[in-house]
Design brief:
Helix content is 31%, strand content 23%. It is of the alpha+beta class and 96 residues long. The strands form two sheets. The protein has a two-stranded parallel ribbon with strand order 1-2. Strands 3-4 form a two-stranded antiparallel ribbon. This is F-box domain-containing protein.
Length: 96
């Protein structure tokens, strides 16, 4: 049950971690795992984590979402959805 310890280390419900692939991807700007992240995980589980270099930080993606939220409020849009495309590390917005 290694995936459960990963979920616990990152305060993620165990049912949100995919037990089939038994991996957790951490998107980081320099593509490196920060030592303080690894410090919270058993050394036996370090091989279960892979860092992926991305173009946008989570705070940048969140800022874009907040800006889109403001546009939605200004134009009284009633149907919208947001998602993050993890393959391309970009915000997806569906607005109608």
């Amino acid at each position: 049950m290694q995936w459960q310890s990963l979920a616990k280390a990152f305060n993620i419900p165990a049912n949100k971690v995919d037990p089939m692939s038994n991996r957790m991807y951490i998107n980081t700007l320099p593509g490196e795992i920060l030592p303080d992240i690894l410090a919270h995980i058993s050394p036996d589980n370090h091989n279960l984590i892979q860092a992926v270099k991305v173009n946008y930080s989570l705070s940048t993606l969140n800022k874009v979402k907040n800006e889109l939220d403001e546009v939605i409020k200004q134009h009284d849009i009633s149907f919208y959805a947001f998602d993050i495309d993890i393959e391309h590390n970009n915000m997806i917005a569906i607005i109608a």
